[in-house]
Amino acid sequence: MVSLRPTAPRAHPVVVQSTAPRADSLVRLVTGFAGFGAGSVNLAISSSFLAGGASGPAALLAGVAACLWGAGLLAGTVAFLAKDRLAGNRWARYALAGAAATHVAAIAFPISATSRLSLTQLSALLLTLMIIASLGWLQRHNTPADGTPQPAGVGMRPGRLLLAAFAGAVLVAGITTPGLAASTAGQYAVPHGEHGNLAPGGHHHP
Questions:
Q1: Residue spans of alpha helices (H) in 52-157
Q2: Which of 30, 52, 53, 146 sits between 20 and 30 A of 118, alpha carbons compared?
Q3: Prediction pTM value
């Protein structure tokens, strides 16, 4: 017998998309800023070894190593931000840990070539530790409970993302700037406001 009672439509689950900001997007930004800062500081360390008056094969080797590491950090940061993943993965983490240990050794056991770079080494150490901590946080939190990865920035409000980017940039700049200023490159930098100021004879002011 066919029932004439109307059939209720099948209920479909309602999917509610969260509009709360995802913390991993914020941490990813800070990681990128710290990577650029650490790369710049290591290049400053390299310039201090190569052009700062230090002589000998050890200083030359340290300068070349710092230059390669700084350039690698800058390139790796660009790849990390562009592809949303860490280039080299586990090996990159080992390299970061080794760099942090090197900075600690340079601070704890200074020699004539590194004693004037303690502040620069400290800045590089703090930035490297910031990268390591951020990557560890992302590794633990970048996959939801259902195991399905979500793209960065899902649910991120542009206003909060902008504020977070500004705060992260200020934090990294506060660590990077003293380190750059203490290096040889910072000591020979032209002070702000004096670019293009010519003396009466046509030469720059000393």
A1: 57-83, 90-108, 118-141
A2: 30
A3: 0.74
Tokens of 173: 């700049």
List all residues 6 or more positions away from 99 whose beta carbon is below 8 Å from its beta carbon.
Answer: 69, 124, 128
The domain limits of the chain are: 23-140+157-184
Residue 124 CB contacts under 8 Å (≥ 6 apart), including other chains: 38, 41, 42, 45, 99, 103, 179
What are the phi and psi torsion angles at 43 (to 5°)?
-65, -35
β-partners of residue 183 are none
* Partners of 198 in the β-ladder: 204
Q: pLDDT of 140-171, one tens digit each?
A: 876 554 444 455 444 557 777 788 788 889 99
> Is there a contact between 35 and 73 (Cβ–Cβ < 8 Å)?
yes
pLDDT at 47 over 80: yes
Query: CB–CB of 70/42 below 8 Å?
Result: yes
Rounded to whole angstroms, the Cα distance separating 37 from 72 reads 12
